[in-house]
Amino acid sequence: MDYMEELNFTETDIRQRVLNCQKRLKQEEYTGLILSAEPNINYYSDFRTHAPWSTMARPIFLFIGHTGLPILYVHVFQYPEAKMIAKGCEVRYYENLFSAIESELAGIMQELDMAKGKVGVEKGKEQLIGFNVNVYEALKKNLPQATFFDASKLIWSQRMIKSEKEINCIKRACDATSYAHEQTFAAIQPGMTEWEIARLAQQYMLDGGADYPGFVLITSGAGNYDRLSKTATERALSKGDFIFLDLGAKYNGYWSDFSRTGFLGKKDEQRNFYQDKIHEVTMNTIEHISPGVPVTEVVDICTAEIKKAGISTNFECGRLGHGMGLMSTEPPSIMKEDNAILEEGMIINLEPGIVNELGAFILEEDLVITKNGCEILSGANRNVHFIV
User: Fold this and answer.
1) Which residue stretches of the chain are H helix?
2) Which contiguous run of DSSP H or E holds residue 245?
3) What is the strand order of the sheet 374-376 is part of?
4) Which residues contact 30 (CB under 8 A, 6 or more apart)?
5) Computed from CA positions of residues 227, 231, 234, 236, in that sequence, does the dihedral angle turn out positive or negative?
6) Which of 15, 214, 225, 298 sits at 20 to 30 Å (Cα–Cα) from 107?
7) Quick one: CA dihedral 157, 158, 159, 164, positive or negative?
C-alpha cells in the first residue's frame, strides 16, 4: 500500500482530548486523574515509547488536573524524546530507574490540587495501573485526604468513540492486514513451517503499510484446530492441513484484528459449507448493526442467524466480538453481560465461529459504526484458500 500522507495527531487533537477529559472530571467531581498505562499515555499526550509493555523499568505518569496542561512525568532517559514529541502537556523527569518515589508523585498532585478529594486511577474494566503497587500504596498513605477511585468508565467514554483520524488509522492497519492475508496465503506451500509463514505475514504487514506487525496467531493440522490463541511453531505443513491465520497490525498506535483460512488440498465441499455458513451468519448480523443498537441485541441477532443457518457455533473465546483501538481488544464486548449501546465512531469486530475436526471456520470482521449503519474495514478473500 502506498499512502502519500502520514496520519499524525496534532497539538490541537490532543489538547481537545484533554479538555474533554477535564470537563468530565468536573462533572463527576474528580480532583484529577493519574494515568500510567501505555494506551492512555498515548491517547492523552501522543507519547509512545520504543517498547511498550515490554519493560517494568521507567514507568510513565500523566497527571491531569481540573484545568491547565497535564504533567507528563518520565524517567530522565526518556525525557529528551518526550520533550520533543509529546503534545498538549508539560514534560518533567525523575531519576530513580524503577519508579518515581511516592513523595515526588504526591508533590505533583499537590501542585495540581489533586492531593485531596476524588482522584481517578486505572483500576477497573480493561485498565491496569502501570507502576509498582508498593509505590501506589505508599502514595495513598502520603495523601490521606485523597480517595482513589476507578476512572475506567470516564476513560472509556472517550476512547470508545473514535475521531475521523483515529478511524483512518485503523483503516490503514486493516488495509495492511488485508494485504498480508492475501500475500501470505498465496505464498504458502507444503513443507513450510508455521514459523516461516508467520515471518512472511509480519513482513507483508509492513509491506502493506503497517508501522508494526502486531501479532500472528496460527494453527494448523488435525488435533490443533481448537488452539486458536496459538503462536507459530516449527511444525511443517503437509497436504490435508487446514490453516487458521489471525493477524493484527498497528498503524500510528491503532490496531486491526481479523482472521482468514486456508487448506492444503483440493476444494472440499464440507469445508466450503462451514465457511459459507459462518460468512452468511456474520454478514447477516452486520446488516443490523447501527447506532442505537444495544450490544445485547447484536448477540441476539447473531444467535438467531446461527439458528437460521442450521449450524451450532463453538468458538469459545467468551464473546462474539470486541472493540478495538489503541489496544487490540477494548470495550465493548459483544456479549449479553455488556450493556453498551453502539454509537457512531465505535470500532468493533464480530467473530462467531465453528471449530471441528475439519478446521477452524471463523471470519472475523472489523467494523466502524457510521451514521446510518456500519462499514466493514477488514478485507481479503473470505473463502477458504485452497492451496494445491
Assistant:
1) 11-27, 38-45, 79-85, 102-111, 133-142, 152-159, 164-187, 194-207, 269-286, 295-309
2) strand 242-251
3) 330-333, 321-323, 347-350, 365-369, 374-376
4) 24, 117, 118, 119, 120, 149, 151, 154
5) positive
6) 15
7) positive
CA distance 119 to 43: 19
**Domain coverage including residue 343:** 164-387
Q: What is the mean pLDDT of residues 39-68?
A: 91
- Cell numbers at 70, concatenated: 497535564
- pLDDT for residue 106 is more than 70: yes
What value does the mean pLDDT take over residues 171-198?
Answer: 98
The owner of cell 462474539 is 320
Please give the pLDDT value at position 315: 79
Q: Are residues 146 and 171 in the same domain?
A: no
Q: Are 383 and 271 in contact (CB under 8 A)?
A: no
pLDDT at 56: 85
Give the N- to C-terminal CA distance of the chain in Å, as an integer: 28
Among the candidates 127, 159, 191, a domain finishes at 159
Average pLDDT, stretch 149-157? Answer: 97
Burial-class residue 52 by CB neighbours within 10 Å (0-12, 13-18, 19+).
middle
291-293-297 Cα angle (round to 5):
155
pLDDT at 99: 81
Distance CA 309, CA 52 (A): 43
Residue 60 has pLDDT above 60, yes or no: yes
Question: All 3 cell numbers of residue 334?
Answer: 459483544
Q: Is the pLDDT confidence value at 171 over 60?
A: yes
Give the whole-number percent of the chain exceeding pLDDT 90.
91
Domain membership flag for residue 71: yes
Amino acid 2: pLDDT: 57
200 with 67, same domain: the answer is no
Tell me, yes or no, whether 203 and 218 share the same domain: yes
